[in-house]
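Homework help thread (please don't just give me the answer)

Our assignment gives two proteins as sequence + C-alpha cell strings and asks us to describe the second one. The first is just a warm-up. Here they are:
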Amino acid sequence: MYCDKMKRSCYAETDLTFLVNISNTIAHSQDIYKDIELVLTELCNFLTAQYSMLTIVDRNYDKIMISAAHGLTKEEKSRGVYRIGEGVIGEVVQTEKPVVINDVSKNPKYLNRTGVKKNNNQMMAFLCVPIILKNEITGTLSIHKVHQGVIDFSAELKFLNIVGMLIGKNVSMRRRQIEELEELRKENLKLRGGKSFKPDNIVGNSSLMNDLYSLIEKVAPTNSTVMIRGESGVGKELIAEAIHHASDRSSKPFIKVNCSALPENLIESELFGHEKGSFTGANSSHTGRFEMASGGTIFLDEIGDVPLSIQVKLLRVIQQRQIERVGGSETINIDVRIITATNKDLEEMIKQNTFREDFYYRINVFPIYVPALRERRADIPILIDHFIAKLNKSNRTNIKRITGGALDMLMVYSWPGNIRELENVIERAMILTSDDVIHSYNLPPTLQTGISSNTMDKGALKGILERVEKQLIIDTLIVVRGNITKAANQLGITERIMGLRIKKYHIQIQHYKSLTNELS
C-alpha cells in the first residue's frame, strides 16, 4: 500500500516501529541532549525533511532559543534566537498553535535567522508545532521539507505533535536546568555586588567578546598602561573608550591622538605643547594633548608609527609622569592614564631596530587582543541589526530586514576590513535596495564568493567575472532608474547585448524602475 501524502509505504507497523524506537531512545538515554539530536535526525529521515529544530522558551528573558537541531552547524544554531511573538517560531509560542508555511521564500514571517540554505528551483515548507506540558508551552518542534507543490502536510504535523509529546518532559527538564543556571548566575552576580559587565558602546555577545569584557572590567579601575592589539577596523578605539568610561577617570577628559596622522615635525608639539616663539609659526603658547588629558585618559592610536626620537620622550613621560613643552624649561607634572593601540607587529619592529625595546615593555603592561570579525562570526547578525538601526536613524531610511541569502554571504566572507568594512557594506546595501529589504544582489561583488554562490567548481575566474559584470549592470541600472537604453549607452554596449545580459543574470528590471518614484 502506498500513501500519496507521505510519498512512501504507509503501513501502520512502519509508523509504530518508528515511534517505538524514538521512545526507547529517550527512555534509555544516558546523554539526553546528544540523543535528542539523534531523534531529530531520525525524524528528518522518516519524514524526508532536510532540517529539524527543537527550541526552548526562556520566559525570564522573553526569548526562544534552539536547544538541538539536525542539519545546522553550531554557529547556525547560535543565531536562532527569537522573541515571543517574533517570526513563525515566536507566533507558535505565543498562540500555542501549529503553523505550516508551504513556501518559506514567499512568507515574510519566516525570518531564517539560522541561514537555512534553500534551492531556488524547489519549494521548501516549514512546519512548526508547540510542545506543551501541563498546560504550559515549553518549546517548539519544527522541520524544513523540500517538496513539489504539496498542499496537505497533516500527516507530518501529526508525527511532529506525537514526537513533541514524547520529548516534552525532557524539554521541560532542560528548561528547568536553564532557569536553575540563571538563578545561580544571578546569585553569583549578587555575591560579586554588581551586574555582569558589558560596555554600552560595544556590540557582541560571542564568547571571545565576553572574555574581552572581562579584561576591560578588571583593568579599568586601575591606572595601568594598556596596549590594545588587533587588526585595522576591529574597534580598538571603542575598547579604549570603554576602559576610560568604566574607570574612576570617566568624568575627566578622554583625549584621542592618531599618531600616524601627525607629521614627525609636529607630533612633539601636539603631544607636549610648545611655548610662544619656540619655532617658526609658534605665535602663541600651545597646550599639548597630555596636558589636555589631565586627570583623565590619553589614547595613543597607531603607536607603532611614532618616530624613535619621540619614543624616547614618551618613555620619560610614562616613567616619571612629567613633560616639558617644546621651547620651554618648566617641568609639568601630569596625572594621565595612558592607553595605546596598534595593528603592527611591534616584536618584529624591535628586531629591525624600528621600535625601542624599552619603550615596548613600558606600554605593554596590560595587553588586550581584540578578535577579528572572522573569529567571532556569531556576532555578525546582531552587528547587522545594530548597523541597520543606526543607519536608518542617520540616513532617514526604513530598512526592515536582511534576507537569508544575503546573511549567508555575509557569514562566509573573510572580512579583511573587519567591522568597519561590514558597516560600509550594510550602508551601501541599504542605499541600493528598493523594497526596504537587503537582498544578496545588493551586496558588492567582493562578497560573491565561490562558497556563497556555489560556483567554486565551475571555474573560479569565470564566476568572478560574471559576478562583477552583473553587479556593474545593477549599479548602472540604479543610476539610470531602470532605463535599459541609457544603461547600455553608459556601459558602451548595444541594447540587444544589454537585454541578453539582463536575461542571463535574471535581473528584475522593475526593481530599478520603481526607484524613479521612490527617489524623486
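The one we have to describe:
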Amino acid sequence: MKILVCDPVSAKGVALLQRQPEFDVEVLEKRLPEAELVPRLPGVAALVVRSETKVTRTVIDNAPQLRVVGRAGVGVDNVDVEAATQRGVVVMNTPGGNTISTAELTFSMLMALARRIPLAHTSMHAGEWNRKAFQGTELYGKTLGILGLGRIGGEVARRAVAFGMRVLAYDPYLTLSRAKALQVELVEKVDDLYPHVDFLTVHMPMSDETRGMVNAAAFARMKHGVRVLNCARGGIVSESDLIEAIRSGHVAGAALDVYEKEPLPADSPLRSLPQVILTPHLGASTEEAQDNVGIEVAEAITDYLLHGTVRNAVNLPNLDAKTCEGVKPYLNLGERLGRLVAQIGPKRNDRLVVTYGGKANELPTDPVTRAVLTGFLSFAGGKDVNQVNVRTLAAGLGLLIEEIKSNEETDFHEWLHVAAYAGDQKVSAGGTFFSALQRPRIVRLNGEPVEIVPKGVLLLLNNTDRPGMVGHIGSLLGRHQVNIASMSLHREKAGGKALTVLNLDSVPPEPLLDELRRDPDISNIRVVRL
C-alpha cells in the first residue's frame, strides 16, 4: 500500500510507517500545488498532511485507492471532510499533541511582553546599552484575563498561578468546579473581565460568536496600559482595532502568533509597531509537539490500514462497518438533539444525561453519546469539535456525562433523550424515528409532547392559548417574508399557556423578533439552528 507524505512531519513518524513491510512510503520534498499533486495520486492508500497541502475534492476524486487522510495536527480546515466522507475516506487528526507547546509559547510571549525582551535584544545587537529605555513590569500580583479555559487555556492558567498572578477567566461553558480546581475566578460576562486585567490572552476557537470579539469596544473597557496576547486563532482579536488602540497608547503592547491573514502581509501595520511581538504561527513548533503528532498520525494510519481499527477519526465513529450502519441514524438524531438542548438552555452546565430507550438499548452507546456531545459542544468548541475530542473537551469544561439505558414504557419502541443540568435548572429533548424509512422526529421538549423535524431553523415560543393566535403568529411572520415549513403545537389546558414550535425556511430577522417580544401574549422566544 502506498503512503504519500505531502508535508514535513516528524522523522520518527515517517520511520514508523517505513518499518511496515506492507507500506511503500514516499515523502515529498516540498508542498505541491493541486495540479502537481494529482498525477502522483493513483495507487495512494493514505495521505499524510499538515496544514500546507490542501486535500480538496479534486484531490480525493483523483485518488481512487485512497482510504485514509492523516492530519498531523488538530484542525482539518485544509481537508474537504464532506468529500472524503462521501467517498468513504476516513479523515484522522491528532488531538492534544500541541497543548503544552502552545501554552508554553503563550507564557513565553507573556514574559517577553512584560519585560520588553525583543526590543532590548535588538538594541544590544545594535551596539547600544540603554537600560532606562526598557523598563518592564512584573507578573507577580498582576491580573491575567483568559478568554477560553479549555486544554491550552487551562495550562496557561496553571503557569500564571505559579507566577503569583491573579487569574480571571471567561468561558461560558466551563463549570464552577473546574474553575475552582484551576484556581481561577470565573466571570459570567466577558465585559465583567475587561476592566480588571493587566494582561489578556485568547484561547477560544474561531466561531461566529468569537470572531472579532476583542475589538474597539472591548479595548475601551480595559485598563490603560493593558497588554494583549493571541496564540489561538487569527481574527478573534480585531487587528485594525488593536493597531488603533496601540497607536493611541491605550494598549501598551501585544504579542501575536496568529493573524487574520496568513502569512502576515509584508505591509501590515503590525510589523511597524515596536510595541508588538510577532511570531509566524509557532504554537506547535517544538520538537516534542511535532514528534507527538507525527507518531500519533503514523500509528493511527497503520492501525486502520493493517487492522481496520479506527481512532482519532473526525468523520467516522470507531465501529466496524455492520455496526456503523445500524448506529448511523442515531448519530444524526443525537447530534441534532445535542445542538437543540445547547441552544435552549444555559451555557454553563454541570451534567449531561443521555438516555437510551426501547430498541435503542441495543446500541453501542459511546458513538451516539459522542454525536450528542458534538452537537452540544459545537458552540463551545467551534469547528475543532468532533467525535474524537468531545469527551476530552467535556472533561476540560468539567461537564459530567451520564448514560442511561431505560426500560420505561413509552409510545415509541425506540427513543433517545438528552437532558442538560445547570444546578437546579434542567432542559431536555427527546427523539425517535417514524416509519420504516427511519425519519427522525423530536417528540419531547422539556417534557412536553411535540412533533418537530430536526433540521434547519426552529422558532420556539410560548403563547396564550386563545382563538386566532395561530393565525396571528402566521401573519406576523408573513409580513416579514418568513415562510413556515411546519408547525407543532401543545397546550396543557384550554386558555392556558401553549408551546409553539415552527420549522422555518429562513432565519427570522431581528425586527420580527422584536415585534414578537413586544406582544403581551408571546414569551420565551428562541431561535434554534440545527
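TA reply:
I won't write it for you, but here's a hint about the kind of observation we're looking for: The domain at 317-445 is CATH 3.30.1330.90 (60s Ribosomal Protein L30; Chain: A;).
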